[in-house]
Amino acid sequence: MNKCGRCKGDCDSDSDCAGNLKCFQRDDDTAIPGCNGNGATTYDYCYDPADFGPSSSPVLVPVPSITPSTPSTPRPSLQGSTTFTMPSTPTPTTTPVTPQEACYVCGEGNEVGNPGAVVWGMTCHELQLGGELGLLPDLPCFVYSTMATLHCGCRALAPIAPVAPISAAPVTPAPVTPAPVTPVTPVTSAPVGSAPNAERESSCRDFGNTFEVDNAVGSRDCGWLRENFDRFSYLCRFVDVAYECRTLCDTCSYFEPRTLT
Fold it and tell me: What is the mean pLDDT of residues 120-147?
């Protein structure tokens, strides 16, 4: 597999670059360290971390050569200071930086993954904080971004999950369904006798079986019909009632055996 040389692309990871070259990841026309020219938009190019001098395409502005500080040089601090003094030789001219000139060394929405790593005598956390507050020395922001990319392990900020609102479940009232009213269906039969008669033949009597009145009243017998005869005398017109309550309904003559002549 052919690997990309210095200032060549498109690469997706360091493994796509030859030798000790690294893959410079970008989403726009950000300058690639050690390269000149624009290059293709959103393409990623291989670069040499040890070489910040101009070479071939695609970076627009050459990165200035910076001599890292020696361990004996005191480390600058953000506390009680409005500007940094670069621990390198020669020292660049330092000018106050306004908040509008803040430098997001890992890009907006990102943070350093190794806050304790040291870059130019300051930790990556101090580098990030100084950039956001506009307190870094007067160098192009992409220089600090390059160093943060190389040494600070830039990463995206973890998204904060929104808190879901608590809502009570709506209470749906149960519908009240009235019980259907079934109309009374009278038992149809041929009309027979109508009125009681106290004078009965000795063989004529009422039986103890029940008969169906309607769905509302249910099954009843002749004793019930006798007690409620004023209201339910019309039941004697039905065959089953007339047959069971012969004395009460005066229907004996309808059910007595007859001699054919």
Answer: 86
